[in-house]
Every structure is written in structure tokens, then in C-alpha cells.
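Lab notebook, bench 4. We co-purified these components, and the gel suggests they stay together. Before we commit to crystallization screens, I want a quick structural picture of the whole thing.
Request: model the full complex, all chains together.
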Amino acid sequence: MSDPFPRARTAIVGAATFGLGRCPGYEPRDMAAIAARDALAEAGLSFADVDGLFFTGSDDTFGGAMNLAQYCGIRPKVADNSRTGGNVFESYVERAAWLLDAGLIDCALIAYGSNQASATGKLSSTARPFVYEAAYRPLLPLTGYALAAQRHMHLYGTTKRQLGEVALAARKWAQLNPEAFVRTPLTMDEYLGARMISDPLGKLDCCLVTDGAAAVVMTRADRARDLATAPVAVLGAASMTTHSQISAMPELTVTPLAECGPRALAQAGLSPDDIDVVQLYDAFTINPILFLEDLGFCPKGEGGRFVDDGAIAPGGGLAVNTNGGGLSCTHPGMYGLFTIVEAVRQLRGECGDRQVKDARHAIAQGNGGVLSSQAVVVLGVD
Amino acid sequence: MTTPTEAGGPDLQYQGHLAAGRFMIQRGVTSGVAVFYPRTVAPGTGEALEWVEASGRGTVYASTCVRKRPPEADVNIALIDLEEGPRMMSRVEGIAADAVPIGLAVTARIVAQDDGHLVVFDPADEAVA
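Here is the predicted assembly.
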């Protein structure tokens, strides 16, 4: 049976960010509400139009959707604040597409906000430590990704310089993006000289710790045509989870994206060759290498060589993380919604100096936990 | 209704075995498939689990060195594939924290800590010979 995903029957009609970098004095809900208002306003919509709210807040043990709905004056039929990690926003798009197509809701608002950099200066986590790992004092999540990187190097000959290519490409894209938080030049020597934290990953292999908020709005495609913005069609969306802790990951160099990535592309009727721009969740430099392999842009094990020689930097063979990514643009605790916003902006042709010419098909990917949960959205414009 | 055991849940039982000097893991009573970390039911099948003593033999699957600011010493973090099949997080001692190779044969050792007991690994005798 072919995949029943409602291909191109829903669309993203609004996308906005707020407070990227530092946003002192604001609570996460303040920030999410502004991004939400602005994303709706783009399409000529308001809070009153929203009947499906998808939101997760790290400062609310009930998940946060009720509080954001109350704050914005929304009475949602669907209030989804499930959280598998930073990838849940791609999963929200997947679920919203199904719920819109089924007619349960008419307008989905997906939002996020975090003030973690201003509030605590470190990654926020409410997770209870897993006793069978915590006793050994790993630096999580970093150590989990370091173990995957070390294994990839061992099996496939991936090098530290190739990890550095990912960091340098992100920085070059960030230099073209006025919204990016870190835009200073970065050389390979500086990268290689950065303090090692958990071998083989050092300080410049890690994403930023920033504040930031984002929101996107979805409707059915027939309604989208009547709104103020050019609709970006949701062509495919899929999610997969294989584990929670790194010690339970089946194979550290193969993420759940190897299952849901090809599934989402098949829903869209596309292959990697058809994709013009790719937004990957680069919490650490090893991530894009693993994800490009799992999405099928290169064979398993070839990711390090794939990113060599500036191949994913501006002017390279494949445009990856054109906003500067979590490494150089923004990473406010959970980054998944920002890959979607950047994909939408590229497909609308709004990206100025970093615009990918004639971009028609884009992938936005999200990663949760320690490579644990993956979700991906395939977007397109006519 | 399934009846709770007097010995308590699997975490308590595991710690009790370690305190008695035994590194115990579980296996499915029907499938015989070994399981770590301790659980009340087998993953996948849901079958009952029984405790068996681990051989203590394992192989390094992946390893990293967590760098500390001096005078604190660097710490090794490794994923160990146990001979019985399951994988666990641990550390390898008796060798530099940043020089633990994938594939190294290792042997389990129980160490006491303030808040319980812990399984760590040393290079196996044949690995250092």
C-alpha cells in the first residue's frame, strides 16, 4: 500500500522568528507569543483563527500548551505539547497535516520560545538522570554525540578536519544571515585549536546556547491560496524514535532518520537529487554528516568526504543550513522549528545574500535526545 | 494481577547483587535473550526475566575521554558490548582515559561508591599481555 500521507493538501502560510541570540527580560511565553502573532499576521490571520496549538515549553511540567493558549486567547480543539526533543516540531507539522486534512482543525499554530541563554546561560534540561549512565558522569548530551563521532571515525575514516568543515560551512552561511548570532570569520586552525571537551568533539563542534522564538502557521491548501502569503506545500513528513539513552542506540552511526527520511521523501515523490536546500539539526558537527547519509544524499560512511572542501558551504554542491544552523545562527534549547522557518524562507525567496537560486524543494529535519528521535518535513513550492 | 516481589523492583535487586559481589544481568525466561539495564519485563516480548551472573567479559564498542580542568583527572566513558549481548555504559580504567580503543577486550570489576556499587572495566589479561 502506498503511503497515505496527505501530500500537498496542507501548507505553511506563515513563519516568523523573534529574539534570536539574546532577549533579556522576556519569559519564553512572551517570546513565543510574539513569534506566533507575527507568523499569523503574515498570512492575514490572528489568534482567533487558531484551533490547533502545538507548543512545548521547557519551564512547564504540564508541557505549556495550555498556558500559551491562555496567554494568546486561543481555545484550541487540539493542544499538543508532546516532546521527544528538538525534533518534535517536525512531528507537529506531520500531525497538523493529518489533523487538518481530516477536518478536525482548520488552522494550526506551531510555536516555541526559550530564554535559556539569558536565564541560565546553559542548555535547559528537566530530564531526570538515567542512573545506568549518570553514575559514570558523562557530559550529556555532548558525550553521546562524541561516542557516535568516534565510532564513525573508526568505521569510516572520518576525520576531525571533516567535522571542522561542518563548523566552517555553518559560519560562512551565518555571515550571510543578519539574524545569525555569531558572524565572525572562523578558520580551520581556530577550529582545530579549540578546547577539547569529549573526544573528538571540542568547543567549536557544539551548537550555540542562545535565546530565541519561532512560529509557523498551517492551513489546508485550498484555504492557503486565499491568504496573504505564498503557500509552501507540505509534501511529506515522518518521524521515528529508536531509543532514549545513547547506551540503548542500536548502532551509533545509523540514526532513526534512516527510516523516516526516505519515507518522507517517498511521500513527496522526490529523491535527494530533487532537493534544492537542506536544513539539518546541527546540535553537533557530527550530526549533518550522519543525517546527509541517512537521508540518502550519500552512502553510509561517506558523509565526512561529502562535506569536504566546502561542499555544504555557500557556493558548494549542496546548500545545507543556510541560516548558519545551530552552530552559528541560533540554538535556544530546541532548534527544530528554526530549520522549518529557514526552509520556508528559502522557498519563498526571502533570503537575500544567502538565497539559494530557484529553490523549489526543501528538507527541514529535527533531532531529539541523543540521536534518539528524528523527524523530517519535505516542503515545496510550484 | 501480577504480584509485586518482596525483593523489590529490578534496580534494588541489581544493587543488592552488586553489594554481594555479583554482576548480574537478566535474560528472558523463554527466549533466553540477555537484557541490560534491569527491567521488570523483557523489551519486545514482554516475557518474564530471570537473573543470571554475567561472565564479566566484554568489548569496547565506543569510547570518549571527558576532559576535566586540572587538577581533576580526565574521565573515560565507554560503551561496552557484554559477551552475553547487551550493551552498557561504563568506563575503562587501568589505561589512559583518551587511549581506549574500539574493540579492546575488557573485564568487569565492581567498585563501591558512596551511593551504591558500580561496574567498571579493565583491559582483559589477554589484551595487555
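Chain B has a mean pLDDT of 95. Worth comparing against the SEC data before the next meeting. The first helix of chain B runs from residue 10 to 19.
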